[in-house]
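Ops channel
N.P.: pipeline sanity check, posting one input/output pair.
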C-alpha cells in the first residue's frame, strides 16, 4: 500500500496518508496527489489505487493552476523534486554604467572592459533559464570580475585627474608667491 502526499485547496502540501486516510481528508477528484514511484503530481481520479474513493460520485474537474511542488514549503520531502537555486547576480546594470561613464571621460579602454562585463552579464540569465546553474554562476563571477576591474581602473583614473589638477593649481599658485614675479609678468 502506498502513502500519498496531496495539495489542499490552500495550496499547501500535506502527507503522508494511506488511501483510507485520504478518504477521510475529503480529497476531490481534481486534488493533486503524489507517491513514491510517480514522476509527477496527478489528479486523484487518475490514480488507480484511489479510484474507489470516487465510486458513485461525480464532480466536474476544475482546471488547476497549481504551482510546481517545489514552490511549497515541504517539497524537499518529496523525492524526485529539486529546488532550483536562486539566479546569481547578473551585474548587467553595473557593467553598463562602467562602460558608459568612462566613455564620457574619453577613456575607450575602460569602455572595452565594461563591454566584456556586459557580454558575461547577459549570459547569466540565459544559462539560468536553461537550467545550467553552474554556467550561470561562472558567467556571474566573470561579469563581476570584469565590472570590478573596470570600476577600480575608472576610480583610479578619476583620482589621478583630480590629483593632477590639484597639483597644477598648487604649482601655478606657488608662482604668485614669488616676490617680483608679478612685476615681471605685467611688464
Amino acid at each position: 500500500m502506498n502513502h500519498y502526499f496531496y495539495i489542499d485547496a490552500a495550496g499547501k502540501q500535506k502527507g503522508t496518508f494511506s488511501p483510507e486516510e485520504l478518504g477521510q481528508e475529503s480529497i476531490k477528484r481534481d486534488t493533486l496527489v503524489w507517491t513514491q514511484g510517480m514522476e509527477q503530481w496527478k489528479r486523484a481520479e487518475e490514480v488507480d489505487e484511489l479510484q474507489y474513493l470516487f465510486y458513485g460520485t461525480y464532480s466536474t474537474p476544475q482546471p488547476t493552476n497549481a504551482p510546481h511542488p517545489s514552490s511549497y514549503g515541504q517539497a524537499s520531502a518529496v523525492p524526485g523534486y529539486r529546488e532550483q537555486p536562486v539566479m546569481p547576480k547578473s551585474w548587467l546594470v553595473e557593467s553598463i554604467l562602467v562602460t558608459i561613464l568612462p566613455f564620457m571621460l574619453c577613456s575607450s579602454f575602460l569602455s572595452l572592459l565594461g563591454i566584456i562585463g556586459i557580454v558575461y552579464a547577459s549570459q547569466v540569465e540565459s544559462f539560468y533559464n536553461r537550467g545550467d546553474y553552474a554556467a550561470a554562476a561562472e558567467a556571474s563571477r566573470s561579469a563581476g570580475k570584469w565590472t570590478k576591474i573596470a570600476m577600480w581602473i575608472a576610480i583610479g583614473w578619476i583620482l589621478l585627474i583630480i590629483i593632477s589638477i590639484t597639483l597644477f593649481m598648487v604649482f601655478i599658485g606657488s608662482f604668485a608667491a614669488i616676490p617680483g614675479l608679478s612685476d615681471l609678468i605685467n611688464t
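N.P.: looks fine end to end. The two ends are 111 Å apart (CA to CA).
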